[in-house]
Automatic annotation (TrEMBL):
InterPro entries: Metal_Hydrolase. It comes from marine sediment metagenome. This is Uncharacterized protein. Gene3D superfamilies: Metal-dependent hydrolases.
Length: 79
C-alpha cells in the first residue's frame, strides 16, 4: 500500500545483488541471517529462481513486481 500511495506501479527486485533464489547449501546461511522471519520451508524450497518466481506469482499484489536474479545469489552458489 505504501508504494501505490506514492504512485509506484512497478518494483524491480534483485538488482542490488540479492534475490529469492537460487538458494543452495553454500549461500543459504547468508540468507538465513539477512531474511529474518522467512520460514525455513521457503529457504529450503527456493533452490532455483523459478521456485521463487512461482511463489511470488501466487501472492496477491497491488503493484507489478519484476524480479531479477541477484548476482550475490549466483556468486554465493558457486564459491
Amino acid at each position: 500500500r505504501n508504494f501505490t500511495s506514492q504512485g509506484v506501479t512497478t518494483l524491480v527486485t534483485g538488482n542490488c545483488g540479492v534475490s529469492g533464489g537460487p538458494l543452495t547449501p553454500k549461500n543459504k546461511e547468508m540468507f538465513e541471517a539477512e531474511w529474518i522471519g522467512l520460514s525455513q520451508d521457503k529457504l529450503n524450497h527456493w533452490s532455483h529462481f523459478s521456485d521463487f518466481a512461482i511463489d511470488l506469482e501466487k501472492l496477491k499484489k497491488s503493484i507489478n513486481i519484476a524480479p531479477l536474479v541477484g548476482q550475490g545469489n549466483i556468486r554465493g552458489a558457486v564459491m
